[in-house]
Design brief:
Elements: H1 19-31, H2 34-41, H3 45-59, E1 64-67, E2 75-78, H4 80-103, E3 129-140, E4 145-150, E5 156-161, H5 163-169, E6 176-181, E7 187-190, E8 201-212, E9 216-224, E10 227-234, H6 235-240, E11 248-253, E12 259-261
Helix pairs in contact: 1-2, 1-4, 2-3
Amino acid sequence: MTIEALLSLKGDDAPAVGPDRIRLLEAVAREGSISAAAKAVGLTYKAAWDGLDAITNLFGKPLLVTRAGGRSGGGTSLTPTGVRVIEAFRRLEAEMARVLRAIEPDLAGTGISALNLMSGLLMKTSARNALRGTITAIMADALATEVAVAVSDQATIHALVTNESVRDLGLCVGRQAILLIKAPFVVIAAGENAPTVSVRNCLPGIIRRCDISNLNAEVVIDIGGGKTLAATMTAHSAKVLNLAPGRSAFALFDAPHVIIAID
């Protein structure tokens, strides 16, 4: 049987990253542009951008450098951090494959394969937004607990969870956590002045992308520190708000809509 090591790469401030995203990074380095990299790995341009946004959100450090067009032409390349991520992943991948091959004989007859041991390492989620941060405050009452997580120097997100969840997850100030927020839960308010609303989270930023189809729209807001938030809405709403790249905007969402995960 051929054994393939499926692993996740992470450090003190880095989340799980799987081989699909590493291949995308490698394609960007090889092709010199995101559009060419997307084509090389069989993704749409939007899906490639989504994947690269996700990596940046989870690592919290820029992995790409984009050059504007000119005499020498535009393009995208990897930062030194991006290069090190790929190198570290591939080295670990090779070592893990060697280890799995070594322990395979010891698992004979147990009903467990070496590959089964790796099945839980890659975190997959349907939530469009996944951001890593550090818990900075925990405030509890008899009913629930509010957890504040700093995802960058500029942005802190508040989640409302049950007291039981805090105990089960072992949440405490200073611990790393991953926040999951589905894009339909994020509401966009355009403008430079914060709106007066009752939602707990109101994060200022700049619109990076605004993709509008016949019926729906997806807006990606840069909230600082290399982090982004994506929101989905109707195309009509995006047009009424006149949403476009470069505009100031706020990402609004309720604390109960934030899911906390740990690894």
